[in-house]
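Researcher: Good morning. I'm working through a list of sequences from a screen, and I'd like to move beyond sequence-only analysis. For each chain I'm collecting a predicted structure so we can compare shapes side by side. This is the next one on the list. No need for commentary yet; just the structure.
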Amino acid sequence: EMSLPRVLSIQSHTVHGYVGNKSAVFPLQLLGFEVDPINSVQFSNHTGYAGGFRGEVLQGAQLTALVDGLHSNGLLEGYACVLTGYIGSASFLHAVLDVLRRLRAASPEVAYFCDPVMGDGGKLYVPAELLAIYRDQVVPLAAVLTPNGYEAELLTGRSILSEAEARSACEALHERGPHTVVITSIALPGRDDELLMLASRRDGAASRQWALRLPRLRQDFTGTGDLTAALLLAWMQRLPRAEQLGEVLERVGASLQAVLAHTQAAGRSEICLIQS
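Model: Good morning. Structure tokens for this chain:
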């Protein structure tokens, strides 16, 4: 039988709703991947609920222990990809760096997909100290980087107020290491009815870029960034050639729109992942 590509997905977990691994694992499985999830936090629900949330944040030592267990059983070999999303503490992010080095030693071909989850709409929702760790230590190890517009601004230290500035932010991020950068949602001034997704692929000295415009819905959703990163991973593995990135972007955009249309029709704030 054909063995399915394996993905190690390190993200948040909520008991209720669809963010982090709850948003990423199911689509990856549907698209033909074997997913091993590690939960960076375990919360009752996402942090935006009026009644708050309960649960715990995993520390670095706990991540290391889990990976030690995989290693003792020869399970670190053979990962095709590692995907990281929301990480709540500096110690955990440092431990992720160690995990990446160990994975590279065990599976030299492993591709690192980094969703540098830090904030949105001008607001940080992780400790501020994580920014420097992402910028200086994590980004250089990533093959593929999927920030939103605000995170791209944080990582480059420049504002993105036009498509041209978004394109040059991608170039600046390529300089740090990733061959592929996808800025997953950019709300440009004066363009209230659309969101821009911009994908950039560098091969050698040259870059190619593709832009996709999506209708902007009058509602805030949670879990969409996590879903986007997972779909990008799946389709980039299925359509791996540099010139196929435009097609990858279209497929991801179409899936996202279908899920959000379902969600809006249902009048929910949690995305309708299963129904879609």
